[in-house]
Amino acid sequence: MNLPWHLYLMAFLYILAGINHFRSPGMYLRIIPPAFKNPKLINTLSGAAEILLGTLLLFPFSKRFAAWGIIALLIAIFPANLFMFQDKKAGFGLPKWILFVRLPLQIVLIYWAYQYTF
């Protein structure tokens, strides 16, 4: 496969993050807003999606599909990032400015994934 290094980096990061959903589920369960029912299922599905989409990025025939999937996933998990900013316990005691900076970072990650949609 002759894909750009930054695509391999993105795939690696999503696969690693997905695996972490299963290694440290408590961390992710803590940031799922209480309005969402069945946080364990949400954690499992989002972790599996990250692993699957990260893997699919590595194949030219599925790269575009995976990139659109990652964009959808980033939009779907935005409420968790917002909840981290709003709720002290969900924010792991991180400074508010760091939690605030994470919010527009989603736009950067969406733009990065968008680069592989065509």
Outline the structure in words.
There is one protein chain. By secondary structure, the chain is mostly helical. The protein has one domain (5-114). The protein has 6 helices and no strands. The chain has helices spanning 5-23, 25-29, 39-56, 63-76, 78-86, 96-114. Helix 1 (5-23) packs antiparallel against helix 3 (39-56). It is globular and about 45 Å long. The model has no long low-confidence stretch (mean pLDDT 96).
Keywords:
single chain; 118 residues; mainly alpha; globular; membrane; transmembrane; transmembrane helix
Output the helix-strand order: HHHHHH
Number of E strands? 0
- Runs in which pLDDT lies below 50 for 5 or more consecutive residues are none
How would you sum up the major sheet? none
Mean pLDDT: 96
Give a quick precis of the structure.
The chain has 118 residues and is an all-alpha fold. The protein has helices at residues 5-23, 25-29, 39-56, 63-76, 78-86, 96-114. It is built from 6 helices and no strands.
Q: What order do the helices and strands come in, and which of them pair?
A:
Blueprint: H1 5-23, H2 25-29, H3 39-56, H4 63-76, H5 78-86, H6 96-114
Helix pairs in contact: 1-3, 3-4, 4-6, 5-6
Transmembrane segments: 6-22, 42-59, 65-85, 97-114
Keywords: Membrane, Transmembrane, Transmembrane helix
